[in-house]
Amino acid sequence: MLEKVHATASTPTSNPHTRPADRKLTKDEINSLPIRRWEGPVHLVREDHQIIQAVEKLEHETVLGFDTETKPVFKKGVTHRPSLMQLAAEDAVYLFQLHHLKQFSPLQGLLEDPRVLKVGVGIAQDMEQLQAIFSFSPVHCHDLGALARAIGMDSHGLRTLAARFFQFRISKRAQCSNWETPILKPFQVSYAATDAWISREIFLAMQREGLCDPEKMRFSI
Q1: Quick one: 221 exposed, middle or buried, by C-beta within 10 A (0-12, 13-18, 19+)?
Q2: Where are the domains of the chain?
Q3: What's the whole-number mean pLDDT along residues 83-95?
Q4: Among 3.30.420.10, 2.30.30.40, 1.10.3720.10, 3.10.20.310, what is the CATH number of 3-9+21-217?
């Protein structure tokens, strides 16, 4: 069974009439905004049989928010592979603890599925880093940051895009925590789930405002 660690849904709304102009918000402006986080169901996937259960649910989605987390590097010349992959569906977020898993073929199928759109900021780099763990060729993946730049927006990062579209900020406190820990702490679970969730919501907000030009969003590896 998948391990569920949260149980209350949360959905943001974008109001273009109260949204700030398409300029880059200052750090002080962003810090003055209220914090929001994903408060819905989060499923931890740390065993191979759980991958199949998760993918069986995710493959029916049309849009998935995507992100990864990697153990921070404090030494020159040292690199780490991603420790966590997050996929946000409409009503739940799935966290895959990659260093616990060995059978990646279901994930390969999902990431190569042309029917399921994967969206995130810096997604090309994340996908490339995942390819060091298991082999796949990403299909139907769009980079929100690349789209923002292409349409002339000054906000490119996840935090600034969240502030631009929803007038709230997401916490980055857990970004430099140890993502290879066997048991993720509650604040790590919340942080990781929020990043994937807000990626999906930003895409949907862009779509509602007619900002999504598929040709400007694509990338290839």
Answers
A1: exposed
A2: 3-9+21-217
A3: 98
A4: 3.30.420.10
Predicted pLDDT of residue 150: 83
The amino acid present at 41, given as its one-letter code, is P
Q: Does pLDDT of 127 surpass 70?
A: yes
Task: Please state, as a whole number, how many other Cβ atoms lie within 10 Å of the Cβ of residue 165.
Answer: 26
Structure tokens at 6: 């949260």
pLDDT for the residue 27: 82
The 10s digit of each residue's pLDDT in 160-214 is 999 999 999 998 776 667 899 989 999 999 999 999 999 999 999 999 988 876 5
How far is residue 24 from each of residues 69, 73, 119, 162, 163, measured CA to CA in Å?
Answer: 25, 28, 21, 12, 10
CA distance 154 to 157: 9
